[in-house]
Structure formats: structure tokens, C-alpha cells
Amino acid sequence: MLKDKVVILGVTGGIAAYKAVELLRLLTKAGATVHVVMTRSATEFVAPLTFQTLSMNPVHTELFNLISEQEIGHISLADRADLFIIAPATANVIGKLAHGIADDMLTTTVMATKAPVLIAPAMNVNMYQNPLYQENEARLKAHGYLFVEPSRGMLACGWEGEGKLQEPAAIFEAALAVLTPKDLAGKHVLVTAGPTREELDPVRFISNYSSGKMGYAIARAASRRGARVTLVTGPTCLDAPWGVETIHVTSAREMRDAVLERYASTSIVIKAAAVADYRPARRAPDKVKKSDQPETIELVRNPDILAELGANKGGQLLVGFAAETESLLENAGKKLNEKNLDLVVANDVGQVGAGFNVDTNIARLLYRDGRVEELPLMGKDALADVILDRVRDVKSKK
């Protein structure tokens, strides 16, 4: 959504200004053309040359620069912007904007733009909780300004609490959401992701190679498109997607309970998790010591969450995944019919670029009318949007 878009990145004077450098990198990597506007105080924390080098555009710091500009700078930038981000945004600049004060390059450009404005505050916790600041934020929200609320944590001033600039990845995700059409607004999407673990004893477990990347990509994409998203995830190394309700579980039975508890309220369920089919019949209370005698582990079947959802399906649209190593279409088609699914995303995990723990996938989509859609190798973020496009189309026909 950011390819070929013009983004104005406003940077104000706070210690968190260094994080704006990483945000700039994410924006340019996504294909955006970024113009940076810095307040005079911001230049005390990060040199303009840093932003100029990474953006490959001049950095704007002065309202009047008649030598280098042949046009009115703040008006020109304001007219070209598809999105305006202020990160970090101090209490001072938020107070100015809330009361229509435009006395420098940043505030005049914001006042002149018709683009959406996304503000990421960063300040001392007492400043953030001050009623005057809260009134200013509420005033801007009432006028359509968008906010990425700060997180809690240790602040540079030594205090701990609210006021810490949200991470650049979260601000970037919010920027994507601003520019994404909300074709899933009003829908509750439940996504499962990652592996499950079935414990043998306190230190060993049965699991699989799933990284959770596909499910997390679907959760992020659905959230951007306006859905209320619940992500039920097994153990992964991934950060919880910004703006998504994330439920962490470990075993297949825990995942079943979490999913069934929320199933009735959902519109769309996408089961991307790699759930263990079996678990040990008994979990040893202490670590099992090795011995010279052969060990036998008795396994029992785990509940089939997908089959249970299909058997109790009301108005929900149900999507399953089939990761296979042989007879891909035959096995995926069997899953589609036996589990009463609306769509199956099938992939041969033996193919290069389509297995676990990679950022790409090669998928085939199987529909209830017998159609099979073959998709080329693509990134999992791109595939997530393709899947949601097809889900939207199938849902509209139900």
C-alpha cells in the first residue's frame, strides 16, 4: 500500500527522535517516497544528514528558505502528501496543532495538508497524563487526526510508565492500515498460527517446524483491512501484531479451548496453525532419564479442531491449510470435503520456498465448487492479502 506513495515524516525534539530513522527505513523499503520535516529541536538529537541520506531527499527544517526553494515549501509538501506521520510527536507540537498554531515548517505543513495525519506521541509519563495534554489529544482526534498510542516502559527521563514512543514497526503497521481499504470492516476474523507443543516431561516435547509467519501475516493483513482480529498462536519467536488481540497457547487442547470459546462470535476463521495430531498418553512429572533399555512412547490422538469447527459451522466462513509432502491436491481435497471447509490453502512443503521457516510460499487454493487456483512463489505478506481477497469474494456469495 505504500509503493509510490508520498509520505511526509515529521520529527520533533525528543530523545526518541533516533527511532524515526528506523521508521524511515521501513517506509522507504516499502516503496514510499519520504520527505522529512524536522523541528529545530529535533536537529539537536539527530543530524538532518542522516535522514537526507536514507530518504535521498532534502530535509526540511526552515519555514523560509528563499535560496534553495523556488516554490512555497510547506504548501508544496502538503499538496503532494498521501500520508503525514509525526514521530515522535512532543506535547508541544500536539498542543500547537490542537489550537491551530502554525509557526514553523512542520506545523504549517500539517495545517496545509489534506492527507491523513498519523501522530505517535512520546513524552514523560506525567506530561502524557496531564489533563491539558489529554484534552489536546482528544481535540485532535475529534478533528480526524489519528494516533498511535505510546507504550509503557522505562523512559529516558528515569520515570517508568506511559509515554514511550511506540516501536517503529508498530507505527509502520499503523501507516499501512491508514492507506488500506477497509473491505473487511465489521468482520471478526479468527486466525490460528504457529506450532503446538505436546510435553513428554518438563524438558521435552513433540512439535513441528512451523514458524507462525503465515498466520501472523494473515492476522496483520486482516487488521489493516478493518477487521477485528483475534490471533490464537502457539509458541513462536514473532512479535504480536500491532492492534490484534493475541492469545498465546502451547498445546493442541489449549488451542482448541481458545478457538471454541470465540468461535460463535466470528465471521471468518482461518486455521493456519500446524496443530500436533498426537500427544503422549502420559506426561512424566520429572525428567525421564536415559537408560540402556529401549523406551516406548505411547501416543493418543489430539482433538481435530478443524473438523469440530466444520461440524458446528453456522454462518462462518472456514479456511484450512494443508501442508503436504505427497499427493497434494488429493489430500487437500479430502480435507476440504471431510471437514466441511469453504477454502483450503495447500502447499507442498518439500518445494524450495514453500516450506516452514521461510518468508515465501507456493500455494494452491481449493474451492468447494472444485476449482483449483495455482499461485506463484510469493512472500507470505503478499499471499495473506490474496487469501483475504478470495475469502472476501467467497463470503460475499454465501
Written account of the structure:
- By secondary structure, the protein is of the alpha/beta class.
- The chain folds into two domains: 174 residues, Rossmann fold; 210 residues, 3-Layer(aba) Sandwich (Rossmann fold), CATH 3.40.50.
- The protein is built from 13 helices and 21 strands.
- It starts with 5 loop residues before the first strand and ends with a helix.
- The model has no long low-confidence stretch (mean pLDDT 92).
Brief sketch in words of this structure:
With 398 residues, the protein is of the alpha/beta class. The protein has two domains: 174 residues, Flavin prenyltransferase-like (Rossmann fold, 3-Layer(aba) Sandwich); 210 residues, 3-Layer(aba) Sandwich (Rossmann fold), CATH 3.40.50.
Q: Give the full name of the CATH homologous superfamily of the largest domain.
A: CoaB-like
- Tell me the strand order in the biggest sheet: 12-11-8-13-16-17-19-20
In total, how many domains does the architecture comprise?
2
Strand percentage lies at: 15-25%
Shape: elongated
Number of helices: 13
CATH architecture of the largest domain: 3-Layer(aba) Sandwich
* Main sheet summary: 8 strands, mixed
Radius of gyration, whole Å: 25 Å
Instruction: Return the structural class.
Output: alpha/beta
Helix content: 25-40%
In the CATH scheme, what's the topology name of the largest domain?
Rossmann fold
N-to-C CA distance: 28 Å
CATH class of the largest domain: Alpha Beta
- Average of pLDDT: 92
The number of E-state strands comes to 21
Unreliably modeled segments:
none
